[in-house]
Amino acid sequence: MRKYIIIIAILLVLGAMQFIRPERNLATVESRYDVFYLTETNPELVRTVKMACYDCHSDRTAYPWYSSIAPISWMIANHVKDGKKHLNFSQWTVYDKEERMHNLREIKEVLEKAEMPPSSYLLLHSEAKLSGPQRQMIIQWADSLSTQIQMSLN
Ligand code: HEC
Fold first, then answer.
1. Residue 134: which residues within 8 A CB-CB, separation 6 or more?
2. What are the pLDDT digits (tens) for 123-153?
3. Ligand 1 lined by 77 (C-beta under 6 Å)
4. Nearest to residue 27, comparing CAs of 64, 67, 55?
């Protein structure tokens, strides 16, 4: 009997949790400030960065079905908020020169150390797992963007 009371209590709490719905990260138009907006970049690179990084570092997250269930929805909202605070590809051209250089250095670093995408994310998004050559491709892109910025062509 006691067991059932506990189970019912847990279900009630889970049910109540569903009413707290975090804000969703769902910009409907492509940002004019996006790092890839109107730039001629290798489409393979664009596809890879969007697939591996944009869920947490852009203004639009591709939400899986389970993402609306609390407490998963809360965890995702936190990741997105935290990720965007550090780096938001959708607001790239809003960053000043120093911020861009700083971001590019960090992008290189997290890729060299394979820190991003986070391993908890990869558990459910195997498609975002980057191969060695894919990491190299993004690192080279970060390098060439840094050079452009240093030469102030940007
Ligand atoms: C599941 C969400 C998620 C994905 C996907 C993701 N990131 Fe992150 N990223 C975060 C969070 C959260 C932080 C801030 C906390 C931290 O440093 O772990 C962060 C921090 C960063 C930082 C700042 C690091 C620092 O030391 O301050 C960089 C740069 C970064 N991510 C790049 C990337 C790149 C590049 C990709 C794609 C290859 C990517 N991230 C994919 C969530 C994500």
1. 48, 52
2. 999 999 999 999 999 999 999 999 999 987 5
3. no
4. 55
